[in-house]
Amino acid sequence: MKKSLLILGFALTLFSCNKETQAAKTSEFKTAYVNIQILSDSLQEFKDLESQSKVKMEEMGRDLDARVQQFKLEAASFENEAKAKGPQWAQLKGQELQKREQELGMMQQAMTRQLQDEFRPKNDSVTSKMKRFIKDYGKKNGYDYIYATADISSILYAKEGYNITDKILKELNDTYKGGSKTEDSASNTAKEENKK
């Protein structure tokens, strides 16, 4: 019986020491979180891609808009012309207008797909770059964990001091601006050399 009590006491001592060691290790963790939604909305590289996408969409949409306007004019005059030209003409013209409306819809879908195909890889590249940057930032600054949060997230509460979104955003934008300056100066140097 004494041996059992001695073993039980020893086990409890080891368990409590182990618990204290784990508590000490846990309190040594350096953690933070980043609001991914704010990063995505505020990151200059994403904003530039969005602007480029809008410009491209406007350029591609000009022809489509002109065709849509022409279609609307013809559809508006269809009813008056149908009365004058008879039911047989109205039926043929109605089928033609339906076919053109479907073609315009397909053109719009094709344009949207083309834009998505062009800009999705660029967005994915920026997202990957952002994730790599956060990972490197965490290693460089001694973080054990950096969590992600957004509108719907698994982090329901954290002290504001753990939020490093602004730091990450500033460094990412500074890196992007630095890269843009380097690319701009390289292209300006190439242009000057071509002039010579």
In round numbers, the mean pLDDT is 78
Order of helices and strands: HEHHHEH
Q: What sort of overall outline do the alpha carbons produce when their principal axes are compared?
A: elongated
Number of helices: 5
Strand order of the largest sheet: 1-2
Low-pLDDT ranges: 17-24, 182-196
Tell how many strands the DSSP assignment holds.
2
Quaternary state reads single chain
First-last Cα distance: 99 Å
Radius of gyration from the alpha-carbon trace, in angstroms: 32 Å
Helix/strand-derived class?
mainly alpha
Helix content: over 70%
Largest sheet: 2 strands, parallel
Task: Report the portion of residues in β strands.
Answer: 5-15%
Number of domains: 1
Short note summarizing the structure:
With 196 residues, the protein is mainly alpha-helical.
List keywords for this structure.
196 residues; mainly alpha; 5 helices; elongated
What would your notes on this structure say?
InterPro entries: Chaperone_Skp, Skp_dom_sf. Keywords: Signal. It comes from Flavobacterium arundinis. Belongs to the Skp family. This is OmpH family outer membrane protein. It is a single chain. This protein has 196 residues and is mainly alpha-helical. The protein has one domain. The protein has five helices and two strands; from the N terminus they run αβαααβα. It has a two-stranded parallel ribbon. The termini are far apart. The C terminus is likely disordered.
